Amino acid sequence: MGMTRRNILSIGGAGLVAAAAGKAWGQSFPFPLNQRYPDPAIEILDPSFAKYRLYASSVEQLATGMRWAEGPAYFPEERYLLVSDIPNNRIMKYDEVNDTFTVFRSPANFANGNTRDREGRLITCEHSVTRRVVRTEKDGAITVLADKFEGKRLNAPNDVVVKSDGTIWFTDPLFGINGNYEGEHEKPEQATTNVYRIGTDGELAAVITDLMNPNGLAFSPDEKKLYIVEWKGTPNRSIWSYDIAVDGAASNKIKLIDAADFGALDGFKVDHDGNLWCGYGSNGALKEEPAQVAGRKAYTLKGKSEDLDGVMVFNPEGKPIGFIRLPERCANLAFGGPKGNRLYMASSHSLYALYVETKSAV
User: Which residues form the domain of 172?
Assistant: First the structure.
């Protein structure tokens, strides 16, 4: 049985610990995280962000117990959200009607990015082992959409988006085969880390080949621009903008966002006004010299996690306008809910949510 809000509120502290131990996805503390309205966790960095904040809405923790939460995708017909728990090799399901959090698929080939196609089917990036992009049919059957390019295996499909014309776009960095935590360590076969397009005819094309470990991606509302996170951007993680032609060709590469505060841009979504809602946290960069920590010398982070963890919102010109502070680093997010205005945030061990005054561009 999945943990529900009613279950959590009805058990005491000792029972909560026992429940969390027995259920890897049990709640660790009550929600909402802040009792005051407006929630101090929602920071307005520019007056233009004020209209997106709902005064009587606060950040809620819906579930916890994952090892690295990623790839949330919302399915409005059944009102549930899927989220990958990569190191645990499973996809979890949050049912917003029953307020339950259960295992949807295990094993899941270290699934990372998920999305919904125009017919309501699940599209998944299997991050390791199989190293492929698959579609789950309505009857549960799995259809392989891409696993090789030019006769060689893909690296580790990471994030995925479906364009209105039915084409599927995904990134293919190395994370899932770099080690044995988010997958199984293997040698790459591709010479570059690419962004691919699967045509409606099933043909796979490498659209962008000049990014080092491309990560999250999303289209502008008019789909004329494709935004892509470069994980190994120089000197910082970046979001690049490309013009996309009708035939899928990419051109006019422009750096839209530079995470100059030692932040880690990851997965993101674009709202109907063209704003980019980006998973954010520390990029792990260390200071050049050690500091005294608890009586010993240690190399500390350049950017404090407690200042960076959350969701950073940029306007279409790349200016930061808002920040949602979270107690954990946010890797990816998705808009959902009956009205499309509930922001789901997959954040390290937990799933959080916040109602906002906007919705996805898709």
Answer: 31-355
State the DSSP string of 239-276: EEEEEE-TTS-EEEEEEEEE-TTSB----EEEBTT--E
Q: How far apart are CA 91 and CA 43, in angstroms?
A: 31
Model pLDDT for residues 70-122, shown as the tens digit of each residue: 999 999 999 999 999 999 999 999 999 999 999 999 999 999 999 999 999 99
C-alpha–C-alpha distance, residues 20 and 40, integer Å:
28
Q: Is residue 22 part of a domain?
A: no
Whole-structure pTM value:
0.91
- C-alpha–C-alpha distance, residues 189 and 178, integer Å: 13
Q: How far is CA 24 from the centre of its chain?
A: 21
Centroid of chain to Cα 334:
7
101 by Cβ neighbours in 10 Å (0-12 / 13-18 / 19+) ranks as buried
CATH of the domain at 195: 2.120.10.30
Closest CA to 334 of 201, 216, 195: 216
Compute the distance between CA of residue 141 and CA of residue 143 in angstroms, rounded to an integer.
7
Tokens 């935590």: give the residue: 181
Q: What are phi and psi of 215, to 5 degrees?
A: -125, -110
